[in-house]
Amino acid sequence: MKRAIALLELGQGKTYKEVAAKLGISSVTISAWADKYEEVGLALLKDKPRPGRPPIITGGQREKIVALAGSDPPEGHEKWSLRLLAEKAISLGYVDSISHQYINQILKESEIQLY
């Protein structure tokens, strides 16, 4: 978004320093974006692929796991455990596989506590 705003501002005749001050970034960065725009055009606005491991599960799968954690635990259990949630998410077909540690991470990110 900042790159698009910067290009618009530069197109309206503002200086690198003015645009940098408005966006709260350095004028060197604005200059680099302007140079890159000259090279690749609007492709500048597309993010490059980020390094690292791609997400294991989708947002929809996360939502199902969070909803499951908020539901009543299975018969014979007082409350959900991380391992029980992982097993249930797999048995319900929400995911092919998932660890209890990853379930914990999902719940923390969603600010849900089992205890």
Provide a brief overview of the structure.
The protein is mainly α and 115 residues long. It has six helices and no strands. The chain folds into two domains: 44 residues, no CATH class; 51 residues.
Structural description of this entry:
The chain is mainly α. It has two domains: 2-45, no CATH class; 59-109. Helices cover 55% and strands 0% of the residues. The protein contains six helices and no strands. Helix 2 packs across helix 3 (27-40) and helix 5 (82-91) packs across helix 6. It is elongated.
How far do the termini sit from each other? 40 Å
How much helical structure, as a percent, in the residues? Answer: 40-55%
Structural class: mainly alpha
SS strand fraction: under 5%
Largest sheet: none
What would the average pLDDT be, to the nearest integer? 92
Name the quaternary structure.
Answer: single chain
Number of helices: 6
Radius of gyration: 23 Å
Number of domains: 2
Order of helices and strands: HHHHHH
Structure summary, number of beta strands: 0
Low-confidence spans: none
Shape: elongated
